[in-house]
């Protein structure tokens, strides 16, 4: 894989803008996925051997999910590389219940977590070596028996073919936006590049950003996790833990354990 550092930087810039952070919650409203992640957190908290259940939300964004994972008997850390996102997270109601850290999986300390979560497209934003490095760090950061949960897109369903978008105007907390998207076919590594143009008519500003997402099959996910010392416990095709159908399901919901 070449160009991984520049792709990682491009992905970070996609979210490290206060105007885009302000509309993140609108585009990532709490729905069925958040219910699932909270359910897993409840399961982990119920069986943890320590005084508190220790949870890491990697790529936490504005913390819209992260704060709901916190509570009595839990220690929650939200990690994200985008300062603009964390600025929103810190001021969120109940934001003081979470420890916010700017950075990547390198901030996960060894044997420090009972549960690691990557929600949204976080797993797909980790490209090439960054993906493998993150899995190694997560594997080392989980206690024996600790769990990792995340979702990713099924490449067999070719979701990128429906991601083209002509200019569309909408009103958001950041003001009026005009957005358009142009998406490439995957390269030999399964990486799709989405070029996003965002216009702010009120100010005349224009942002042109490339967002990179890597598609991985269930077989590749299993193999990559195994190298990091993580065993796949379950792959589902939806948030209700229905067994994954590689020909039909648009996503993979992955649950893995250390050791």
Describe the structure.
By secondary structure, the chain is α/β, with parallel strands linked by helices. The protein has 2 domains: 4-154 and 215-258, Vaccinia Virus protein VP39 (Rossmann fold), CATH 3.40.50; 157-213. The protein is built from 8 helices and 11 strands. It has helices at residues 4-15, 18-27, 32-47, 66-69, 83-90, 122-125, 129-141, 218-227, and strands at residues 53-58, 74-80, 98-102, 113-118, 142-153, 165-172, 175-183, 191-200, 205-214, 230-236, 251-258. The relative contact order is 0.15. InterPro entries: Methyltransf_25 (IPR041698), SAM-dependent_MTases_sf (IPR029063).
Q: Could you write a compact summary of the structure shown?
A:
With 259 residues, the protein is an alpha/beta fold. The chain has helices spanning 4-15, 18-27, 32-47, 66-69, 83-90, 122-125, 129-141, 218-227, and strands spanning 53-58, 74-80, 98-102, 113-118, 142-153, 165-172, 175-183, 191-200, 205-214, 230-236, 251-258. The mean pLDDT is 92.
